[in-house]
C-alpha cells in the first residue's frame, strides 16, 4: 500500500502537491483496508484504489464513495450499502434518480468475481 501511494505521488506534479495532506490521510486509511472515492479525487489515487481492490486478496475491503464510483472506478464489489437516498448539489437535496441507484447497486456481484451480490 505504501509503495503504491508513493508511486502515485511521483505522478503528481510537484507544484500540485502543496496542500494535499489528504493523500496522507488516504494512505493511512488504505493501510487499514479503507478507501474513499469522489469526483474530485486525483486520478493517480483513484488508480491506486482500483489496484488495491483488484489485488488477490483485496487490500481495500471498504470503499466509501459517491455515485461517481459506479461510472469511474473498475472494481469488484460484493456489497453496496446506501447510507442515504438523497443527493445534495450544495444548495438543494433531492432523491437519487432510479438510474443513479441502479448504477450504484449494480456494482455488487460482478460477473467473473462473485456468484451473487448484496
What does this protein look like?
By secondary structure, this protein is an alpha+beta fold. About 40% of the residues lie in helices and about 10% in strands. It is built from 5 helices and 4 strands, in the order H-H-E-H-E-H-E-E-H. Strands 1-2 form a two-stranded parallel ribbon. A two-stranded antiparallel sheet has the order 3-4. Strand 1, helix 3 and strand 2 form a beta-alpha-beta unit. Helix 1 runs antiparallel to helix 3. The protein starts with a helix and ends in a 13-residue tail after the last helix.
Pairing-aware structural class of the strands and helices? alpha+beta
Give the low-confidence spans: none
Total beta strand runs? 4
Give the strand content: 5-15%
CA gyration radius, whole angstroms: 15 Å
So what's the overall shape? flat
What level of helicity do the residues show?
25-40%
Cα end-to-end separation: 27 Å
Provide the succession of SSEs. Answer: HHEHEHEEH
What average pLDDT do the residues reach? 79
* Biggest sheet architecture: 2 strands, parallel
| Number of helices in the DSSP assignment | 5
Strand order of the largest sheet: 1-2
List keywords for this structure.
single chain, 118 residues, alpha+beta, two-stranded parallel ribbon, two-stranded antiparallel ribbon, 5 helices, 12% strand
